[in-house]
Amino acid sequence: MMLPNKLLEKKLFRQGYKHIIAVDEVGVGPLAGPVVASAVLITPKFLLNRSKKLKNVRDSKIIQPNEREELADELKSNKDIKFSLSYVRPSIIDKINIYQATIRAMRSAINKLKISHKKSIVLVDGKAKILGLDVDQITIIKGDSKIFSIACASIIAKVTRDKMMMRYAKKYPQYEFEKHKGYGTKLHNLCLKKHGPCEIHRKSFEPVAKLVAHSK
User: Which residue segment(s) compose the domain that 46 sits in?
Assistant: First the structure.
């Protein structure tokens, strides 16, 4: 298994950038729950980190939940990085669409870091730059599997969203969000057909939209 590397970050620091901010999102595809973005500001010292745990940093989607939480805790407690989080609720996703909601969440997470725009650069997971940012950007398709700092952001975002969905599972137990985290699994679809959509379902997403239409 190929692990994300630090080559791009090291190159950018050598070029004179003082701040590197990696940003990633989680929750584009689910039928329920928010989209969550994490921005991680790293330092050259962080790249030299010898933590055995952080050697296992990789795309959050391929990490088991327990290890993912351990890595997130390790990252959050590291004094050589700063991180921020932002999310967009399902009702807003329905109003502005998931693409715009994702951009909004990522831009908000970056702005919370209050970076100096001079000598700063943002590494974005995906192919689209974030509109409304007056700062250099590099987009990397599948960046969470290639770029170390983006993988770090993906882990923090994923753990945060999963915990949000666990809380929703207590509020809406009939949907079993603790098992599927809002994604369109067979179990989730069965719950939807039985109970109909709830407050945190994305009414503009199929098959939720079809159920909403049939209920009118």
Answer: 7-166
3-state helix, strand and coil shares in percent for the chain, rounded to the nearest 5:
50, 20, 35
Q: What pLDDT score was predicted for residue 194?
A: 95
Give the distance, in angstroms, between the CA of residue 138 and the centroid of all CA atoms in the same chain.
17
Calculate the alpha carbon distances from 198 to 31, 92, 97, 166 in Å. 11, 15, 19, 15
Question: The domain that contains 37 carries what CATH number?
Answer: 3.30.420.10
Q: Cα–Cα distance between 153 and 166 in angstroms, integer?
A: 20
Tell me, what's the pLDDT at 49?
75
Structurally, how many domains does the chain consist of? 1
- Evaluate the omega torsion of the peptide bond into residue 207 and state whether it is cis, within 30 degrees of 0: yes
- Confidence band for 1, pLDDT divided at 50, 70 and 90: low
Report whether 25 belongs to an annotated binding site.
Answer: yes
pLDDT in tens, 21-48: 999 999 999 999 999 999 999 989 898 8
Give the model confidence (pLDDT) of 51-75 as tens digits.
778 888 888 999 999 999 999 999 9
Per-residue pLDDT reduced to its tens digit, 141-166 = 999 999 999 999 999 999 999 999 99
List all residues 6 or more positions away from 173 whose beta carbon is below 8 Å from its beta carbon: none
Q: Binding site annotation covers 24?
A: yes
Flag whether 85 is in a domain.
Answer: yes
For the whole prediction, is pTM greater than 0.85? yes
Alpha-carbon span 61 to 58, nearest angstrom: 9
